């Protein structure tokens, strides 16, 4: 890739340029688009023409302000569909936009890199907010001093290997009685509530690749009832395979007794409460951070 070649072409006064977009979803599916009148190829991808995606002028800043723009598109069955948008498959998808010399695709330059934010759709079209990489600066940084653990189960800070036997389960859907309630058959060897707070991922069927967080996990009439905090926004049918991973409520006791991972606990269970902070010295008892006597 040669940005210098593109700049030299732009300086010539007679230009042959177009715009190319690459959209990479969280499930790994990548789709390429271009506003040129024919397909272009580079980086092992084919950027299809006339597939109904265009972008407004990019906002670019030299400081730390957030760069953003919007993408406008037409919902098409062979590209971006309303069903996939409704299912959340394009939430936080990565977007890269190039300016390309169409008769020499090696002469190109990245003009935008970021993710898809809010998507609205109406009248057979959609409008997607594109958030630049500096948008991540809006996220809270640093650690919080809480009694509960600040790590996410299985991440680098936690260090626990969820692939260990007994902390994950793959089972077939027996039935679905509501958008958030799924029944599984043949689940044995796991206590009730074992998967509460864990992740439910659909491994097959129309909803393959979509995930939800488990709110309630219990056994009723020899079936496992899994209730999610939010419904998976695609149809789940009987026989579809699900993968459940164990959940963690961030407490010290759970980290020690359920996962035997207390050395990596990232909470502060012995931090004094507010009553201790406003207490006054006492001659008849020690202020140890526990409950104060009255």
UniProtKB/TrEMBL annotation:
**Pfam families referenced in this protein's UniProt entry, alphabetically:** Phage_BR0599, Phage_phiJL001_Gp84_N
Supply the source organism for this entry. Answer: Yoonia sediminilitoris
Its name, as the record gives it, is Putative phage protein (TIGR02218 family)
- All residue ranges annotated as the Bacteriophage phiJL001 Gp84 C-terminal domain in the record: 193-275
Q: Which residues form a coiled coil?
A: none
Q: What InterPro entries does the record point to?
A: Phage_phiJL001_Gp84, Phage_phiJL001_Gp84_C
């Amino acid at each position: 890739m040669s940005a210098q070649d593109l700049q030299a072409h732009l300086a010539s006064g007679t230009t042959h340029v177009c715009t190319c977009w690459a959209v990479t979803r969280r499930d790994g599916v990548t789709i390429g688009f271009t506003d040129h009148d024919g397909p272009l190829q580079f980086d092992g991808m084919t950027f299809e023409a006339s597939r109904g995606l265009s972008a407004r002028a990019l906002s670019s800043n030299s400081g730390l302000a957030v760069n953003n723009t919007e993408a406008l598109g037409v919902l098409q069955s062979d590209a971006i569909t309303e069903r996939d948008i409704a299912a959340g498959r394009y939430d936080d998808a990565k977007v890269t936009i190039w300016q390309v010399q169409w008769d020499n695709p090696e002469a190109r330059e990245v003009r935008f890199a970021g993710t898809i934010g809010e998507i609205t759709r109406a009248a057979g079209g959609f409008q997607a907010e594109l958030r630049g990489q500096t948008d991540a600066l809006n996220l809270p940084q640093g650690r919080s001093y809480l009694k509960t653990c600040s790590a996410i189960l299985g991440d680098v800070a936690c260090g626990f290997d969820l692939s260990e036997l007994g902390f994950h389960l793959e089972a077939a859907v027996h039935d679905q009685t509501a958008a958030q309630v799924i029944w599984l058959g043949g689940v044995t060897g796991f206590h009730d509530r074992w998967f509460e707070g864990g992740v439910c991922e659909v491994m097959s069927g129309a909803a393959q690749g979509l995930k939800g967080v488990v709110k309630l996990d219990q056994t009723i009439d020899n079936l496992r009832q899994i209730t999610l905090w939010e419904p998976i926004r695609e149809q789940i049918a009987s026989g579809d395979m699900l993968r459940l991973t164990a959940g963690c409520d961030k407490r010290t006791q759970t980290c020690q007794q359920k996962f035997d991972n207390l050395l990596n606990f990232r909470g502060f269970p012995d931090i004094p409460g507010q009553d201790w902070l406003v207490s006054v010295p006492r001659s008849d008892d020690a202020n140890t951070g526990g409950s104060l006597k009255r």
